[in-house]
Amino acid sequence: MKKLFLYTFLAITSIITLIPFIWMISASFMPDGKASVYPPVFFPTEFLLDQYVHLLTRLSVARSFLNSIILSTMVTFFSLFFNSMAGYAFAKYRFAGKSKLFNLLLVNMIVPSQVTMLPLFLMLKSVGLINTYFAILVTGLANIFGIFLIRQHCMAIPDSLIEAAKMDGATDFQVYRKIILPLAVPVLVTLGIITFLGTWNDFLWPLIALTDDSMYTLPVALSSLMLEHTKDPELMMAGSVITIIPVIIVFLVLQRYYIKGIMMGSVKE
Amino acid sequence: MKDSYSFSSRAAYFFLAPAVIAILIFFFIPVIAAFIMSFTDFDIYAFGSLDTVRFIGFRNYIQLFEDPLFWQSLQNTVYYVVLATPLAIGISLGAAILLNTKLIKYKGFFRLSYFIPYITTLVAVAIVWRFIYHPKFGILNYFLGLFGVNPIDWLGNPTLAMPAIVIMSVWKTFGYNMIIFLAGLQNIPEDLYEAASLEGANEWQKFKAITIPMLAPTTLFVSIITIVGYFQLFAEPYIMTQGGPLNKTLSIVGYMYQEGFRWWNMGYSASISFVLFFIILIVTVIQFKLQKNRLA
Questions:
Q1: A14 lies in a domain?
Q2: B60-295 architecture in CATH?
Q3: Which of A10, A71, A179 to mutate to probe the B interface, most B CBs <10 Å?
Q4: Nearest CA to CA, how far is B286 from chain A (Å)?
Q5: Which residue of A has its CA nearest to B230?
Q6: To probe the interface with A, which of B15, B115, B259 has the most A CB atoms within 10 Å?
Q7: Residue B292: Cβ-neighbour burial (10 angstroms; 0-12, 13-18, 19+)
Q8: Which chain B residue shows the shortest CA-CA distance from A86?
Q9: What's chain B's Rg over C-alpha atoms?
């Protein structure tokens, strides 16, 4: 009896949580006006791709999709590369100023990124880099949370492994490339998916830094579409589906790593 | 002999340089620059010539104190945080406890459906919710109508717009807290509950005497993360209400964006961003204090 109650409760709350997505997907397959009726229609009578075709051909959403893919991939690649080198150095090297530098970085974590945006905009504008991929890339090149996560992981790698490789004549970079990186794959996947999704979903900075619709990422493109299409839920839902579905696919495939990342983040003290 | 394979510091600097330089140029320096800017009258004329920029001391901050729109945005944001934080924490703790019981199977599925909103794109789901809240055709009013509730103009009503945004935010973020609570619950030793059962404690007593105190560090962490995140409210009102109606959903970051990037009052905008920073700093310091007290 208690069990039945629990299952019913969980099932109902799960459905309530998912209803916005179900409605979003349904409405995106409807013809114009079909999602603006009372009572609402929850399932389309036929699955039409009109809204998607319209978005991808007449409006520049295909271009925004490409921008989002390119930027999220670039940011993920560079930040993994930079963060892993720095994290490794903090875990395994002794050098002057180490703990000072590390603490300085940690203290920076509490500064909200919005504070940097005005000067960053002016800096990039003065060198003509506003409205370029570069403007988005620079803010994601390295991040303190990533360095911290990789440092924690690298500290568990035994020194003897590194020393043995050095005795065999490996350079410092070879050690990093051939020993550290392969051993760090799980944490790199975790950090990679967090970075990819974070860049894909980011809104405020791309809204500021990308000024031309050919450069827009999907969230910025959607927000600008919304200004002209407040009465076209079918079209906007198709846009939301295009934006959300890749995120859900990436997450479903790498779920395990993502959840682990959240838990690692929560034990930092 | 020893030195030949010890870890040289030159290599360390080589590994650190790309990340540290990137953070220095694209984060650290902008923070300092923003701080300096907040004491200047940097505005649209400065784009023509930097000579027009003057240091004006604390005038931006003094002006903020006298600016009704700023107080409105601060009040709105605090209202949002105060309303959304307990809801988000309560619901996520409840969900975590339910999913932690040994009675049920298919936990993975339920956990996934609660968590999915968190990973999805905020702008896209804010658009979805804007239509869900539609007074005439929205599905929320339809469902409420089944229970005899008259149609509500959620986003058009000055008193309801912010609570509507709160509901959406809680829906979007509670899955994240739930995961952290689940991890916390799994760390509570099983024998504590067994011992309590032997002494005849009921579920509610066990919850109060074991779960709540054992989860205290987790709850503290979750609260801080949630509060700090919620203070940065921006995209939801930007998409759903544009700060309206009657500026009742204008947030601190929304006001900063408006002043800085719509009217180009960048000095003034910088001072708003530092007020946000200051609030987040206070919240974080309180966390550290509480943590220390617990250890002492």
A1: no
A2: Orthogonal Bundle (1.10)
A3: A10
A4: 13
A5: A112
A6: B15
A7: exposed
A8: B16
A9: 24
A41 domain residue, yes or no: no
Residue B52 banded pLDDT, cuts 50, 70, 90 = confident
Instruction: State mean pLDDT over A129-157.
Output: 94
Number of folded domains that form chain A: 1
Calculate how close chain A gets to B109, using CA atoms only, in Å.
9
Q: Tell me the domain boundaries of chain B.
A: 60-295
For B192-214, what is each residue's pLDDT tens digit? Answer: 998 998 988 888 898 889 999 99
Of B19, B128, B256, the CB nearest to A240: B128
Residue A231 lies in a domain: yes
Is 60 exceeded by the pLDDT of residue A125?
yes
What is the full DSSP assignment across B33-101?
Answer: HHHHHTTB---THHHH-GGG--B-TTHHHHHHHH-HHHHHHHHHHHHHHHHHHHHHHHHHHHHHHHHH-
Confidence of residue A261 (pLDDT cuts 50, 70, 90): confident
Q: How far is CA A245 from CA A43, A232, A240, A252, A254, in A?
A: 19, 20, 8, 10, 14
Contact indicator for B190, B182 with CB cutoff of 8 Å:
no
Buried b / exposed e over A148-164, threshold 16 CB at 10 Å, is bbbbbbbeebeeeebee
pLDDT at A269 over 50: no
**Encoded tokens for A76:** 């993920």
